[in-house]
Amino acid sequence: MTRVVITGMGAIAANGNGFENFVNNTLAGQVGIKPITKFDATETGITVAGQIDDFDAAAVVGKKEARRMDLYSQYAIQVAQEAVDMAGIDETNTNPEDLGVIFGSGIGGLTTIQDQIIKMHEKGPRRVSPFFVPMAISNMAAGNISIRFNAQNMVTSVVTACATATNAIGDAFRFIKEGHAQVMIAGGSEASVNEIGIAGFAALTALSTSTGPKRASMPFDQDRNGFVLGEGGAAMVLESLDHAKARGAKILGEIVGYGATADAYHITSPDPEGKGAARAMQQAIKEAGITPADVSYINAHGTATHANDSGEAKSINLVFGQDSDVLVSSTKGMTGHLLGGAGAVEAVITVAALAQGKLPMNVGCEVQDPECQVNLVTPANQDQPTAEYALSDSLGFGGHNAVLAFRKWSDEREA
């Protein structure tokens, strides 16, 4: 079977605009969660979010094009452009028919939907924008990426709530592995830090009501009280190893396994025993041809809700044992929860962490919940230069479980 490597990455999150800023800030433990200023959130009861304040759509997307895209698509274009530029992919080295896109969003153009419904209600249906539908539908990030880069292979969108981007990257990995494409742009983005997004999750009592940004998203902490909504996204350029080598590409990491299962349990709550998530991890490990003992790090879904963190800890224990040395962290304490974009930013930081030999800390946890018996990454153990394999877990409303297995790339070892 074809080996699949990563040759480009792009990212934007509340704690870093651009791949380098995002990675450096995340590995340094920088929290991007802050008071909500995009709208008056007073009546929602929620005060903080993983809000992005330094995004300039015109700079990358283009002023005219940006007016025809929802913010989630604008984020998608920026991260895809960064990943493609890093990879050095263009029509001189890649046939457009060999280039595809699998890129998702959990909700799609929620800001557009919110604003246009308000306009219809206040001014009538004839005032709805002619761009409403192409801005709102959740496949248009993938479509816009395809148009921008002339990608003519499979172009599709995955929607599996908070597992969206991980499924997108995993499906793209399989598509190349099975010989259907040479290069895929994969990932996810979300832009739901708006009034209806915050209000909707607040109504579910899923969001943290904390007012302090550093004690709001608290993965695995005994006092955790919900997740913090974030925004942004990330993209990866995945490539067959032969294609990457033929054009002399710099290889950043390798995808070696993918697992996808369903809890079949509840519309919002995960299986409290973690069996479905455990099976997804086992699938990814099996496809990678390794054992649990070979895995040094897990980027956990870690939303900082009671149900998720305790269930996910149990799933890790099922696969690795309660006395395992595997290190675990959730980066949502720094970024907030990007919903459909979460798995993409977390995959990017996982690959970067392996490459640098330094793991992201589990920021936000002061007193670990006894129900969450996992070994958290701290300043004392985050330097792991010999770590070779890592997993990135994503679990979505509806019972979706998706796991990616990554391997650190070494030119010397692979020569």
Automatic annotation (TrEMBL):
Q: Which Pfam families match?
A: ketoacyl-synt (PF00109), Ketoacyl-synt_C (PF02801)
Name of the protein in question: 3-oxoacyl-[acyl-carrier-protein] synthase 2
Gene3D superfamilies per UniProt: 3.40.47.10
Active site: which residues?
Answer: C162 (for beta-ketoacyl synthase activity)
Annotated ranges, domain Ketosynthase family 3 (KS3)? 1-408
- What GO annotations for molecular function exist for this entry? 3-oxoacyl-[acyl-carrier-protein] synthase activity
Q: Please explain the role this protein plays, according to its UniProt record.
A: Involved in the type II fatty acid elongation cycle. Catalyzes the elongation of a wide range of acyl-ACP by the addition of two carbons from malonyl-ACP to an acyl acceptor. Can efficiently catalyze the conversion of palmitoleoyl-ACP (cis-hexadec-9-enoyl-ACP) to cis-vaccenoyl-ACP (cis-octadec-11-enoyl-ACP), an essential step in the thermal regulation of fatty acid composition.
- Keyword terms: Acyltransferase, Fatty acid biosynthesis, Fatty acid metabolism, Lipid biosynthesis, Lipid metabolism, Transferase
Q: What Gene Ontology terms describe where this protein resides (cellular component)?
A: cytosol
Q: Which organism is it from?
A: Limosilactobacillus equigenerosi DSM 18793 = JCM 14505
Superkingdom, according to UniProt? Answer: Bacteria
Which reaction(s) does its UniProt entry say it catalyses? (9Z)-hexadecenoyl-[ACP] + malonyl-[ACP] + H(+) = 3-oxo-(11Z)-octadecenoyl-[ACP] + holo-[ACP] + CO2; a fatty acyl-[ACP] + malonyl-[ACP] + H(+) = a 3-oxoacyl-[ACP] + holo-[ACP] + CO2
E.C. numbers: 2.3.1.179
Q: Does the keyword Flavoprotein apply?
A: no
Under CDD domains, the record lists: KAS_I_II (cd00834)
GO biological process terms held by the UniProt record:
fatty acid biosynthetic process
Coiled coil where?
none
Q: In which pathway does it act?
A: Lipid metabolism; fatty acid biosynthesis
Regarding protein family, the annotation reads:
Belongs to the thiolase-like superfamily. Beta-ketoacyl-ACP synthases family.
User: Which top-level enzyme class is recorded in the Swiss-Prot or TrEMBL entry?
Assistant: transferase
